[in-house]
């Protein structure tokens, strides 16, 4: 037998994920090499602070402060971008793709903001960009969409994609404590970042939704083309009222495609899910994704959405795919809807009128006669029909909290309704809107 | 651009699955060809009865009664074995592999009984055998285990793998009707075969467990080396008592590996699952698989486990993988533990003493003083300690039904216990044993 080829790997970033990748790849290396028929060498890693103590010890001569030197090193056939952010990460990714390397990235923000440019660069220069770790951590959802479900067109994908939000909502349900208390504790325990906005305001979920939408539909939808709402306004009253109605509340990304009209829509918002649905029992830091294909029906995927080890598992599966590509010259099948997908026009954005659903509206009103009639009139004006009204608790002196659910309406009508409601003199606080997700399964 | 290569596909079997594959592949063909950069041609199909009317119409000159002529046709680079059974299916698969073709099979019985021979034949002659559709229908669990979770060693895999059993158990819970009634109705509706034994006695689940164990551990465990128990003895009393204890009952395949001792065990049995676990809410014909890897933790996969369309989705994903292999010469990564996986010894079967768990025992005893003491003595003799005793319902005159749960014990001790219990004069009917599945997540 001839000596097996050695494939050299460089890591840009050696933080949480980078160290996990190094450690687990070293541990599994002999097995993976036997399966692949090639040698794998973790050759170099780049960090910002060369002096920082690391959990995973690697020889000093393998560490550099210059990530671009790894991206540009022609001996490294695989470059992992595990830095985060969209500045240096973009430069590193572009540089490596330009020399035809395979880049493995866990960076959903980078993909969402610069995906079109990155994939175009890859196409032009013969590089490849793999990104299993960018969505839902250790769950192999990218591979499922791209390969396992290749026979399908995806009419609907929805999922819990942010572990921090799911952790906070789960603890709010379990402990009955307010959002702010749980958030503070989550920060203390390291489950939420010091600046929580990326997670709790829905941006991280939106970045991931963008990646899934690209995979399923071949177009990049940026966050300014989505509805993005976070969990910060959810109260115990909402959770309890939802539970009484038979729902749990989860922050969901929802990607819907109407193939007949060739329209797509991506949105991120807290959603009431019927409690018998499996995603309603996906708790804590776990993620879950439900995918509806026109052939297979609905399949659901659940697992740890982040963390050193789960993310490393996904990065390593990309590294192994990359090594198989390099060993044999095989290209990964291109992504549906991407330039090679000649048979269909890219979808356009669906108008808000077509994004239908039932709604949950909580509002604080003056406790005086006729208020409900005013509210009902506003809703009727927009053809939003009320399904139920509850006054769940005594609010402050002179005000009353009101929870309404609606029959089927749409995002356009409900937005107009909410704007008009907020203008009513009897409405004390801008109403909170939650979606009721009676998704088909 | 040069004319793209044409890859010809033959289908052996054109029944439920075969027709689904033909129809959906034709529908998706242009898109798949664009992604792959090759042409796909469904060239021929074999059936038993040439005169039978088919739902999916194909030209008469493409249909043959001779499946082996497809297996041996050198122009067909991909052969799908969708006949079922282990006789002709085996011949067809061997013949196609011997000429270096890629065989796509949905046949778990064939794989379980002859997998070792088939994969050895493939290795020897440069053929390949893909089998995504053989386990859990449309759920891409084979790809997840083989590629997506490649960084992991699998300490535990358990799943609901038979839609018929899950459908029956679900309806028993929902309707409160006895097993026999629901089974008869399931047959009438086409959810159970005329000969139900393959499904309800656990053999189909066992075949699928064998395939998953091979994928995860590289060895073929046949059903005679497993514990295989079916659902036919489960009563309403069991379901209700389990529910009162906070459990649902599901027929599970359970594959556990102890890496330190290098031991493996595969079993199939009705199992009490804590109702907050996601698999407890996998109902009807749906399948669900929970996979615990040493890096990623537990990931769970849910979807339709059978049926024309879901199975076709899986077969088509294998056809696309096969076409990608043929287009570029890439080999699929070999399976862990298989011959190429040089770094580890194949695991041996774990002894029954090491298969631990808590148990649920239902038995019918004479309603006379001292019976419980006799039973408790038998259990104590085998060091099986009782966690709870209930007498859920009045049985026939002079007898009493008794439900016991145990603390942690093992398959050896509980078997001996059951044998001794059955010998007690006061025990009227051989006890029913169910496992309590408090699986780690
Ligand atoms: N953590 C997770 O659970 C998770 C899950 C999925 C995806 N991801 C994604 O994975 C990526 C990495 O996340 P992480 O949690 O591993 O982040 P992290 O712990 O903050 O690690 C980032 C690494 O990049 C290095 N770095 C930063 N700026 C650099 C510079 N200018 N030059 C060279 N190196 C630089 C850092 O160096 P120092 O160590 O010297 O600071 C550190 O090693 C992000 O895109 C994230 O979104 C993370
Ligand atoms: N059905 C499912 O939901 C499902 C799901 C997963 C896996 N599978 C597996 O897929 C395989 C096929 O299942 P199926 O449900 O499609 O079975 P099926 O409907 O009974 O179809 C079997 C096909 O094989 C043909 N056939 C039988 N004997 C033959 C012979 N001697 N020569 C030529 N053709 C012959 C039959 O011909 P005629 O049509 O002329 O009788 C029929 O077209 C089985 O291994 C099964 O376990 C099925």
Automatic annotation (TrEMBL), chains A, B:
GO molecular function, one term: homoserine dehydrogenase activity
Signal peptide: none
SUPFAM superfamilies found in the cross-reference section: ACT-like (SSF55021), Glyceraldehyde-3-phosphate dehydrogenase-like, C-terminal domain (SSF55347), NAD(P)-binding Rossmann-fold domains (SSF51735)
Pathway(s) annotated for this protein in UniProt: Amino-acid biosynthesis; L-methionine biosynthesis via de novo pathway; L-homoserine from L-aspartate: step 3/3; Amino-acid biosynthesis; L-threonine biosynthesis; L-threonine from L-aspartate: step 3/5
PROSITE patterns given in the database record: ACT (PS51671)
Annotated residues for binding of NADPH: 108
One Pfam family of this chain: ACT
Active-site residue numbers: 208
Name listed for the protein in its UniProt record: Homoserine dehydrogenase
UniProt lineage: Bacteria, Pseudomonadati, Verrucomicrobiota, Opitutia, Opitutales
């Amino acid at each position: 037998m001839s000596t097996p080829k050695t494939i050299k790997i460089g890591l840009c970033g050696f933080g949480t994920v980078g160290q996990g990748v190094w450690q687990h790849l070293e541990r599994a290396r002999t097995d993976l090499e036997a399966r692949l028929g090639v040698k794998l060498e973790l050759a170099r890693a780049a960090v910002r602070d060369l002096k920082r103590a690391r959990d995973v010890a690697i020889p000093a001569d393998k560490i550099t402060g210059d990530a671009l030197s790894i991206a540009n090193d022609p001996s490294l056939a695989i470059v992992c971008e595990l830095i985060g952010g969209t500045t240096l990460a973009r430069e590193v990714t572009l540089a490596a793709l330009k020399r035809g390397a395979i880049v493995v990235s866990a960076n959903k923000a980078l993909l969402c903001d610069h995906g079109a440019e990155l994939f175009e660069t890859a196409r032009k220069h013969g590089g490849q960009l793999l990104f299993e770790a960018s969505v839902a951590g250790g769950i192999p959802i990218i591979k499922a969409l791209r390969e396992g479900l290749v026979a399908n067109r995806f009419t609907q994908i929805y999922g819990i994609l942010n572990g921090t939000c799911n952790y906070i909502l789960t603890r709010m349900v379990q402990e009955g404590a307010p959002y702010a208390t749980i958030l503070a504790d989550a920060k203390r325990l390291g489950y939420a970042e010091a600046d929580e906005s990326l997670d709790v305001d829905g941006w991280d979920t939106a970045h991931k939704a963008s990646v899934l939408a690209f995979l399923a539909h071949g177009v990049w939808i940026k966050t300014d083309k989505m509805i993005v709402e976070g969990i910060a306004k959810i109260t115990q009253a909402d959770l309890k009222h939802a539970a009484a109605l038979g729902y749990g509340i989860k922050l969901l990304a929802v990607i819907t495609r109407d193939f007949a009209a060739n329209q797509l829509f991506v949105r991120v918002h807290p959603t009431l899910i019927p409690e018998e649905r499996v995603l309603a029992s996906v708790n804590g830091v776990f993620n879950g994704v439900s995918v509806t294909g026109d052939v297979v029906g609905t399949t659901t995927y659940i697992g740890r959405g982040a963390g050193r080890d789960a993310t490393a598992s996904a990065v390593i599966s990309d590294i192994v795919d990359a090594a198989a590509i390099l060993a044999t010259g095989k290209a990964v099948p291109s992504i549906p809807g991407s330039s090679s997908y000649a048979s269909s026009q890219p979808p356009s954005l669906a108008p808000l009128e077509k994004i239908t659903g039932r709604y949950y509206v909580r509002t604080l009103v003056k406790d005086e006669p006729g208020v409900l009639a005013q509210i009902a009139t506003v809703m009727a004006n927009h053809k939003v029909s009320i399904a139920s009204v509850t006054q769940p608790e005594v609010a402050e002196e002179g005000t009353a909290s009101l929870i309404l659910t609606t029959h089927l309406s749409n995002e356009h009508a409900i937005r107009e309704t909410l704007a008009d409601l907020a203008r009513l003199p009897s409405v004390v606080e801008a109403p909170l809107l939650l979606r009721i997700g009676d998704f088909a399964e």
